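I have been asked to look over a protein record a colleague put together. The record follows directly below this note.
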Amino acid sequence: MTDARSVSFWLDDLAAKGLDDLEPRASLPGDVAADVCVVGAGFTGLWTAVSVLEREPDARVVVVEREFAGFGASGRNGGWASAIFPVGPAELARRHGTVAAGAMMSAMTDTVAEVGRAARALGIDCDFRREGTYALVRSDLADRAATLEQHEAREAGLPVPERRSDPSLGETLWTEACASLHPGKLVRGLARAAERLGARVFERTRVTDVEPGRVTTTEGTVIADRVVVATEAWGSELPGIDSRILPLYSLVLATEPLSEAVWAGIGLPRGATVTDFRHNLVYGQRTSDDRLVFGGRGARYHFGSAIRPGYDRSEIVHGRLERTVAALFPAAAGARFTHHWGGPLGVPRDWHPFVSPLAGGRVVVAGGYVGDGVATANLAGRTVADLVTDRSTDLTALPWVGKRPPRWEPEPLRLAGVNAVIGSLSVADSEEQLTGRPSRIAAVTARLGRA
């Protein structure tokens, strides 16, 4: 059985502060019946359970989870509740039309505030603070990228990010539509909230098969009118989803609490998030207890979409992240890193998140957030709840409803292709840093990665 405290800083922090003993719930006690069975006790599954019970308080809702609530990406991420959608406004408009794209982006923007509102209404103190995102502009190329981002927002009718200047952070592009939070507090609080509303949450229960009306597990069978699959990266291990989702690792680290003098030198307000314009994404936040939590991509994909505990940590990638922190924030050089962790995020072949009703709506699969799932999962949960309670709403009309991702290439093409893209992005960042010119490698890689 997995030691919950070892999974991430967020979960260890809960136990260290006496906020959650992280004791696992009971397993499924054999065969049970439900109106709705949710597979996966992460953000998507738990927001779904809560939202269903808010709509239909007498519904019989069962949640089954292979480990414990928050074991997956919901307990491991960087704590950004952002309006970022992996498919940008222009591409969304090309695929779905201008009106549908606008509705999707507006729903994402509204969801950032909704996460905070809903958490408060459920009595969950998850350190939610909406201080926005500061994207560092420290080169001519970053300046051009910032200008392009402003132009694209203006063209899409979205709030235009602001140019800001700070003596410590330097030039930045500030975006309001992002909040920071403590994901461990949120996901564990959601599990308790779902139970208060009447859901039955069973942990240490591995699902082996999903079909209309039935969820088969190692501990028994759930017979349910509607089934919701909310497994994100772990869907790659389920029949019927498998090659439609790819588990790609993102790694994270946390510093010790930093002094006010250090934070003054960094320049990031408490509760704010930070990134820059490199191709291999990095992301950070200043936590409520003044740590810097900082993560990034760059870990390799593993053959056969393998997910293993040993992949959660990498001396090479974590070492690179530590050096990046020192390079971006010299005031933090010498800070002690107390936690190193990581985990897989779910990537569809076309990078397009989805809410997919199948079998006439008797099964709904949601996910594919490409690492931007903290807020997106809330929107998905509310949307799925409308679908399984037979409501036709503005949410069920959004263009990701009915979207089903294509399959990834078979192995070994998948291994070669994905790792080539990952490696190329690192090369592109190095090339641009040396030459000061846009990388042709990055342009080709972007087209290949989303083909």
Q: What stands out?
A: The radius of gyration is 21 Å. The CA atoms of residues 349 and 408 lie 6 Å apart. The chain is about 35% helix and 20% strand.
